[in-house]
Amino acid sequence: MPTYTLTINGVDQELEADPAMPLLWALRDVLGMVGTKFGCGIGQCGACTVHVDGQPMRACSIPASALVGRSITTIEGLAADANLTALQQAWVDLDVPQCGYCQSGQLMAAAALLESKPNPTDDDIDAAMAGNYCRCGTYVRIRQAIHQAASNKTAMFYDATATNAEEDVA
Amino acid sequence: MSLQNEHQQVVETVEQALSQEVRRLSETESGLTADNLSRRGFLKLSGVAGGGLVLAMALPSTKSMAQEEQDITGSMELNTFIKVTSEGKIQIYAQAPDMGQGVRTALPMIAAEELGVKWEDVEVLQAPVAERFGVQFAGGSLSVPREYQKMREMGASAREMFIGAAAAAMNVPREELKVEDSMVIHTSGQSMSFAELAQPSLANQPVPDPGTLKFKDKSEYKIIGSSQITGIDNTFLVTGNPLFGIDIKIPDMLYASYMKCPSISGKAVSANLEDIKRLPGIKDAFIIEGDGNFQQLLSGVAIVGNSTWAVFNAKQQLKVEWDTSSASKDSWTAMVEFADGNKDNDGSEPIAEVGDVAAAFADPANKVLTSHYEYPFLSHFCLEPINCTADYKKGENGEADTLDLWAPHQFPARMYTAAETVFGLPKEQVMVHPVTRIGGGFGRRFTSEFVCEAIAISKHVGAPVKLTWSREDCVRHDFYRSGGFQTVKAAVDADGKLVAWQNHLFATKLGERYTWEGRLNETEFPMLNVPNVKATKTPYEIGTPCGALRAPGSNVNAFVAESFINELAVAAGRDHLEFLLEIMGEPRWFEEGNPRSLHTGRAAGVIKAAAEKAGWGRQLPAGQGLGLAFHFSHAGYVAQVADVTVSSDKKLIVNKVTVAVDVGPIINMSGARAQVEGSVIDGISAMVGQKITMEDGAIEQSNFHDYPVMRIPATPEIDIHFLETDNPPTGLGEPAYPVVTPAVTNAIFAATGQRIRKLPLREHGYSI
Ligand code: FES
Ligand code: FES
Fold first, then answer.
1. Alpha carbon distance B601, B616 (integer Å)
2. Which of B123, B284, B359, B457 is buried most deeply by CB count within 10 Å?
3. How far apart are CA B756 and CA B629, in angstroms?
4. A84 lies within 8 A of chain B by CB
5. Which ipTM did the prediction report?
6. Is residue A34 less than 8 Å (CB to CB) from chain B?
7. Domain spanning B344-379+480-764: which CATH class is it, in words?
């Protein structure tokens, strides 16, 4: 089995794997980095989204060996230090995750969007995030969280301003 | 009258599990002596947990419990669910895994509220799969109603112990003390923190009799209903921590895939196993005979290798000869033809008969309407594919075999049953490890066939294996929402009042058991609201496994009933809102004292609220329309108004969905809203594009490309209103889901005049 070196989250990692093995499985099974998720394996769902040289890519659809010399960022490396990024913080504060399984991919797609468009419109969000499927239906909050991170608002809990309870009208 | 149809199986399942446990316990009970009762045992006997499981908690009866007993170090246990660390932090066990419904957050919130701890001081631990935690089951929107009182008792009981310890330490009467924000405070203002009180004397406090516990008044709540509290695992999720079953990695673990017959329940006869074994990364490939039971272990070909990719890749090159003589022969085309040929029949099996529908239909003063409805099979499409990690170890030197299991399962204790039934391994030899999160459940993960597959593979190769299903496996071997057909007929009198309702259901069944969608109950709305009712079914045998999918039964019945009510209102020249409220009539319980029966006043409450908030009755431009629907399921009352725009090329834009909900008080506000948002999106997703079909017993869809799901651009504005009536809290994972479909189809009718009686919308040329 050939050995090659990948640069993941700024760290060079040597791995021994079949050259055809997609990055997704190299990360999960060989390197034990399981934050990147398997959803469909055919590039449709976005659960496996990572950054390659800052661009969002489907880790299930690129052979790991093709990425030698490129810079790979995964969800584990999204926060450069111990602190969450504004985007991750918005995700926590607005309580975006339901089951949470799609959220690594959502965050990676959203981070790439904010990198290229620091103040995205709803249309920009739709265009950038349409490839990321959320089975639980967290889209309302994904949109809000991206806006919140973009405007760098101080943490505002989910819908704290809305009226949460109505009087019984019966 | 019986419980609502949709609850019946879930409740039965739970009750079955309980009675089994109780039976097993009564066999071992005689072994109990005062000496072998640990403090934990004492607590359980004192009845803190209440109910028939009390004794269970004293007995380390599984491998996991024995191990867990040894693990308890460091923190002090106040009761089954609550521990306190030496720093005064409170640890609360989450009873069931979280699949996105928020139980890991909501249930500990209830205990924390009564205890009086600051939410920041709470750590949520995932409970081991063990009897003392009660029924560790997530589904049926039952977690909150089932656990609410118990969690309150756990919290209040721990609070009383803190008060007792503080009373002794401060030398004041306990009546003068209260607990707030992790402090015990005396009327003088003097106080002690939980950290100061976390001494052995705390654990030695007597456990209060549950009957004496007092609970907080709603007005004192700081945690319950707070919108500041968000999901307990959020930080771990956004940083990619391993929380899911599929993330499990254990030493020396191999990876496995399993190929079953495309025609469900067929048998593997032979395969190119030698070719497969030569492929890179492959360690073994073999046929598993199975037992022919799709709930347990179907025949197939196992491939084991050193990565998921290696085994997936090898699976692509697998050539299998299948024996389909015992396989499903189901054909969607044949079902459609059968239903079409029988739609105007009477139906051979009665469901309900009240009054005289025939007379109402014959009355020339009445207007009579008949419609045929059709809905497809659906797949769950949980984003985390089915997986299970199993480590089967042969006992050496005459020792018994052991088994360790990790799997995303909505009812983890059932894995013990599977290990015992299929592999003859008694509980003492098995350990089901808790899994923190499940990547979507929706009713898919109640069965244990994937667990049996993983066990069989691990046993065969003599190594721990993680079995992962590909997306294609998940789609082709699901336990589907059954498709079906209903003929509904109704009469409105000269005043436009609904006087007769008749329903004939095409009822799919597997062997003796009707599917959820084949079990229309006589209590299904609106049958109790109408004076003359008749419901019948025509059974139809299928071989395709079916199971629960979010609000099972209700999710098709709501589409039919709520659409047809709209048809009737239109035919009678009535406003839908007014017509629906008239059907509800005077506020009353249909069955006094049964909170799971319909209360017409609560129903009218949500209907009025949704209509009012949505601006029902307002003028809209051409191509835009409002649609109203109500449904009662899982003890929850939900009304929705959909606001849609349909373009000339049938592009559907759902502008806004207004939702009014009455499930009593809301525990976890953010989580409750999330369930409603998710239900609305899930409902639109399914109604627009999703349909599973089969021919020759084989499912024809396989992945996202042919089972389209809604994506972010189609997301409507969702405006949610909780009525929070003074009724016991009930669950919210399901009841909002069935309502959105008819709300949207009724809105399409209002916008375009096209009545939708068949799903999905894609087949009528619609797109989103
Ligand atoms: S797993 Fe890569 S896009 Fe779905
Ligand atoms: S949160 Fe469950 S799939 Fe997105």
1. 19
2. B457
3. 14
4. yes
5. 0.92
6. yes
7. alpha beta
